[in-house]
Every structure is written in C-alpha cells, then in structure tokens.
Write a structure and sequence with these properties.
single chain; alpha/beta; Urease, subunit C, domain 1; TIM Barrel; 2 domains; eight-stranded mixed β-sheet; 17 strands
Length: about 450
C-alpha cells in the first residue's frame, strides 16, 4: 500500500497555540490537508523555509454573492438611509444573479479572502431559488456552486443553508424578491445532503444550520429546524442574525414582548454550538447571558459600520469572558486585519481610551485579537482550523518578513503591526489544506477567476 506523501515547512518563528516558538518544523499531508506533526527547536531544513508563520483566520459570516455589489449602495437616497434602504440595492442584485454568476462571484471572493489571510469560511447561504421563487431542477443548485467555488480556490467551508419563511415578525408573506430565499426545514436537509455528498474533502468541510433572523422565520419552523439539526448532528454549528438593527429590536418587542436575545434564550437551547451574528443592539444583561451560554458573538465591524447598524459592546462582553469571531459579511472589506482593527477602533472612539482588547493578561492588542478570533471563528465553523497544531487543517500564512512594517518585529509585535500598522497586505504566501494557493500575495488561479468574475459582472450590470 503506497505511503501518503508528507511535506515539511520550517518556520523561524511560528505562532503555536500556547506561544510563539522558534525553529518549528511543520509536517503536513498535501493529500489530506492535515498537520501531522509539529517539531519545536528543530534544525533548519525541510521542503520549504519561512521566517514568520501564523495560522489562517476563519471567516464566520459570509454572503458570497454580495461581493458583486460592494460599493454600489453608497449613494444618498434620503435622510433615513439605513440597512433597510441598502436592502433594496441588494434585492436588485438578487433579481439578476444566476447559478453561473453565483459561482464566479464566490470564486472571486474566496480567492480574495485567501490572499488577505482568511483560510476558512462559514457561508450563510440563502439565495436558494430561481428569480420568482421556483425551485431549480437540482434544488441545491446554487449551494453546490458556492461549495464548488470553495473547492476550486482552496478555502475550507462550513456551509450553512438558511431558513427563511416569512416577510416579518407577524408572519407577513414573503415579498417578490424574498421568494428566492424561501425554504423550509425539509428543504434545508435536502440541500445539506447534496452539499455533503459533493464535498471532495469531507474532513475539513461541513454543513450546519442558519436561521436568517427572528423576523424572517416563524417560531414553529425555528424549533423544527433546530430539533432536526440536533438529530442530524448534535455538534453542528447553528447561526442566526440577531438584534442587528434598532427597528428589528423594536418590532420584535411589539410582536413578543421580548427583545430578540430575550426571546431566543427563553425559547431555544442556546449553547456553545450557536453563533449570534451582529448583536449590535443588546443590553448589558443580554451581553452577560450570551457570554455565560458560551455562544460565539459573530462580529462583522466593516459591514456593521457600512450599514449603520450600531456598535457591539465589545469591552463589556470580553470582560465577562465572552467568545467572538469575525466575518466579512457583505464583503465591503475582505480583510481580517481591517475587521479586527475596526473592532478595536470602534471601542476606542466610544470610550475615548486606547488598547481595549487585551485578554488573558496579554498586553498586546493585536495578539489578543488575533488569537481570540482564531479560537472563536474555529468554534463557529465547527472545523478543525485556526491553529498550528496536529490534526488541524494545514492553513498557514507566511508573512512578508522583508516588508518595512515588520522590520525589527518579534513575537506579538508582529501581530500588533499586522493589525494596526497600515493597509499594506503583509500576507505573502498561503497554504490552505496543504496546498499553496497564494504566492507573492496573488492567488494561483487569479487570472482565470478574475476573467470569469468580470464576465459575470458585465452581464449583471
């Protein structure tokens, strides 16, 4: 029986789960995409050599198709521009995107994410149906397209088919644009089955469940879907948009006499499998409850700022031991650095002080943020990612040690400079699932992916 090949990468400095380490030899399988062994204090050698290696970042919240509209909703439409007016631009795009477009946009997005340092993604997928609401001949058509885009580019995926059943808290019917999102618990199971069968790598890809929001799904359907998911896979991730806008909180209270977070915790078994996306408009008591449950706060600072959603009370949350990860959501930005930077800067502007996000006695803000987002993002995806450790996916970022911004940096000074020292990309090479997919800051299939994307966008617009 042939022996599976093993490759090695020697790192002069590597960020391991417990600390920075020098002279690290990382053994990985290019076929199974897994880290097989970590040697510390090793002799220089191996197949490849790098000076600075850190784990790739999980992206816990993505709507891939929205990358095609980034920058197109930045025209004033009245004094009350908000998420609700932005949504009309999104609905206009929804009316046009077909399966081929979906795949081309997702490939372009995932290639960009990889170049910036995201190596896994939780795809919150709700564009299920044809324009007008009819099912495709293969009901999982668009789902299979985004899964194929992930495989083509090399990014790991937690695919989360979205439950979407109604147009408002009181069971209003779906609007014309929303018919593309229509689904039910049985449909989601069928889609998940199709995607799982299509995964070339079922070890480092998986499915879960997404509930769009309390306004978009009736209470009976939420309970049915959560119970079905628990029976299917008790540890699968469950994600939900929650308390994103003030209007959503107000309408939820009018409907139920409770805020969205109160309703969620009173009616569902929220635990560490759950990811509560945004949670920008929550009370101190709700923050304490989220932290105590072990749920991940899914924070998307650039999208939350772009939409005018509000600011998650991050300092209070981490003070209670809360866990978080980051996502690029609508993809006005595709950079983990920018998400983390603005997570910290938002707190600085509100609190009028510096260096908020220090954790576990670590004075480094960049180091604290990167480590915590790795751990929270990995939990939110349900994948073995986010760490240079045996058994984890071989997702490694080789930083550009020759860049002037990293000159003289060591240990967590590297992460502080990565996050806060400007907008120049500092990721030079990316190993994703044991394959080198980014070289000199460029995806290895960039030309083909770019041409497909350009053709799709020309047709769409």
């Amino acid at each position: 029986m042939p022996v599976a090949p093993v490759r090695t990468l020697f790192a002069e400095q590597a960020l391991l789960p417990d600390r920075w380490a020098r002279d690290v030899l990382i053994h990985y399988g290019p076929m199974d995409g897994k880290i097989l062994e970590i040697e510390r204090d090793a002799k220089a050698g191996g197949d490849e050599h790098a000076k600075i290696v850190i784990p790739g970042m999980p992206n816990l919240h993505s709507h891939a198709f929205q990358r095609a509209m980034a920058g197109l909703a930045e025209r004033a439409g009245g004094k009350d521009d908000s998420f609700w007016t932005w949504r009309q631009t999104m609905y206009d795009l929804v009316s046009r995107v077909g399966p081929d477009d979906m795949e081309a946009i997702a490939e372009q997005l995932y290639a960009e994410l990889l170049c910036q340092g995201f190596t896994s993604v939780a795809e919150f997928h709700y564009l299920h149906n044809r324009p007008g609401g009819g099912r495709y001949d293969q009901p999982a058509e668009t789902a299979l397209r985004v899964a194929r885009a992930a495989e083509t580019t090399g990014i790991a995926m937690a695919f989360l088919p979205v439950l979407y059943t109604q147009g408002g808290f009181n069971g209003e019917p779906l609007g014309p644009a929303q018919e593309r999102f229509r689904s039910d618990p049985g449909f989601l199971e069928d889609v998940a089955d199709a995607v799982e069968k299509g995964f070339a790598d079922p070890i480092f890809n998986r499915t879960g469940l997404a509930i769009h929001s309390l306004r978009a799904v009736g209470a009976p359907e939420i309970s049915e879907a959560v119970l079905a998911q628990r029976a299917r896979d008790a540890r699968a991730p469950i994600h939900i948009h929650i308390a994103e806008q003030v209007r959503e909180v107000t309408e939820c209270y009018e409907w139920s006499g409770q805020t969205p977070v109160e309703w969620l915790y009173e009616n569902l078994p929220v635990d560490d499998r759950w990811c509560l996306v945004h949670a920008t408009n929550v009370t101190r008591g709700e923050i304490d409850r989220i932290a105590a449950s072990g749920a991940i706060a899914g924070l998307c600072p650039t999208t939350e700022a772009n939409l005018g959603d509000g600011l998650f009370p991050f300092r209070d949350f981490i003070a209670q031991g809360g866990h978080f990860g980051i996502g690029s959501d609508s993809h006005v930005s595709v950079s983990p650095v920018e998400e983390l930077r603005w997570l910290e800067y938002g707190q600085r502007m509100v609190l009028r002080r510096r260096n908020i996000a220090t954790m576990a006695g670590n004075p480094s803000v960049g180091g604290s943020l990167w480590r915590a987002a790795l751990a929270g993002g990995a939990r939110a995806t349900g994948l073995q990612v986010g760490a240079i450790a045996e058994g984890h996916r071989a997702d490694l970022l080789v930083l550009d040690h020759d860049h002037v911004l990293l000159e003289g940096r060591d240990g967590d000074d590297i992460l502080d400079s990565l996050v806060f020292a400007g907008n120049r990309p500092l990721v030079k090479r990316v190993l994703a699932g044991g394959r080198w997919v980014v070289e000199d800051g460029r995806h290895v299939r960039a030309d083909v992916i770019r041409d497909n994307y350009r053709n799709a966008v020309r047709e769409l617009f």
